[in-house]
Amino acid sequence: MDKDDNQHLFAEAMGKVKPLQNSDKVHIEKIKPTTSRKKIIRRSIHLPDVSEASGQRPHASQNDPWLFIADGVSQDTLKRLAAGRPAIDMDFDLHGITRDAALTLLQDGVAQALQEGMRVLCIVHGRGLHSQGKPILKQAVYHWLSEGPFAYMVLAVMPQPNSGGGACLVLLRRQHKQ
């Protein structure tokens, strides 16, 4: 069959198609997100005035090395976080940058998030498929979140559902207004 034959067969088949009546059409309304996500802005930020004594650092779960939980965080809280409650306030995409640049960006972004009273961050670090051996960025991000300057503000870190291990969700402590 050549191109003309295909076009003729298509036109013949389409000639039997009847349009739907207006009453049969289904109209779907677009759902607007309840909160807007912020992309990280690369700029200098003043660190929030929070006492390090006000919180404990998260520790790794015995069952999952990529799950960090501070004392007192319930399984229900983790389930809600995985289900998107509360919604993600800020996204970080660290693909294609060096480990040191990623940690600098992360420090500035977390400082900004704390300053603005944000609670949930999504950090895309990748799965480490292009790293030789271990996933460099993933390990650096998790280590920074559990041992870095803002570790006392982190309540939980968990792999983002359906990310294949290439992103994590971070739940920050609530800021008390002074």
Description:
The chain is an alpha/beta fold and 178 residues long. It has a single domain, classed as Ribosomal Protein S8, Chain: A, domain 1, CATH 3.30.1370.110. 28% of the residues lie in helices and 15% in strands. The protein contains 4 helices and 7 strands, in the order H-E-E-E-H-E-H-E-H-E-E. A 7-stranded mixed β-sheet has the order 1-4-5-7-6-3-2, with helices on both faces. About 12% of the residues have low confidence.
Report helical residue fraction.
Answer: 25-40%
CATH architecture descriptor name: 2-Layer Sandwich
Order of helices and strands: HEEEHEHEHEE
Number of domains: 1
Separation of the first and last Cα atoms: 78 Å
- Overall strand count: 7
Tell me the major beta sheet.
Answer: 7 strands, mixed
